[in-house]
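Running this now, will post back.
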Amino acid sequence: MPTRRAGHARRPPSRPPRPGRGAAVEFEVRGGVAWITLARGGSRNRLEAEVMAGLVDACDAAEDAAAPVVVLRGEGPAFSAGLPRGCRWPEASWPDGVGAVGRLAKPVVAALHGDVLGWGLALALACDVRVAATSAVLALPELRGGTLPGGGAVQRLARMIGAARTLEMVLLGIRLTAARAAEWGLVSAVVGPARLPAAVEDVARRMAARGPEALRLAKEAVVKGLDLPLDDGIRLEQDLYVLLQTTEDRREGVRAFLERRTPRFGGR
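Update: finished.
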């Protein structure tokens, strides 16, 4: 499927542009995976209005695509260096690209390299699985400029690594290497920069080989369960299990097991 591009408008649009209208964000479906690429490598993929709009549009396309897994990556020397220079907070009229990624029902794999800073880190944390190159550096430098991190970075960090380590990152602005981020549980694997594309593709394709409905419901169980008391989270888990039993994918999984073959899931 040919690459499609999103996010061409010069001013913050009232609605995200449709794929094919610009070069801020690229979208394609390849190998059963939806690929979203931040295509402003010259600006280190800073999250300006066009990029935010392109992300919203690409996420819409990813939800509609016949692909159970999404990969988010960046062109150039950095995944994302955060907001544009001199911009401390997105304008109210800008689309919420970070939120769009966080709201995707499909699992999202982030390919991290170079700078992953500020709102760029918030974008990475909105994904579900993160694979990092050894060149990746993760940090929240906002307090140095007299402002606060945004994009949900603080809230997601505290849920992932706890309050103490989050405060260390926020208050001191420490820069995490990829290796330390892996020790803290922020990334699942660290590879050399040249190996990052292949490593991310391997993770995404292994994930995509599983049942699309099972992937979606498993993500829902984890993400929604975080905000629930334990007993309610367990009930949610049970309800989603029962729901999965009603799907054609579940029946196909049983048939494939009995017939000793690879299942052919249809996402139904």
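The chain is about 40% helix and 15% strand. More later if anyone needs it.
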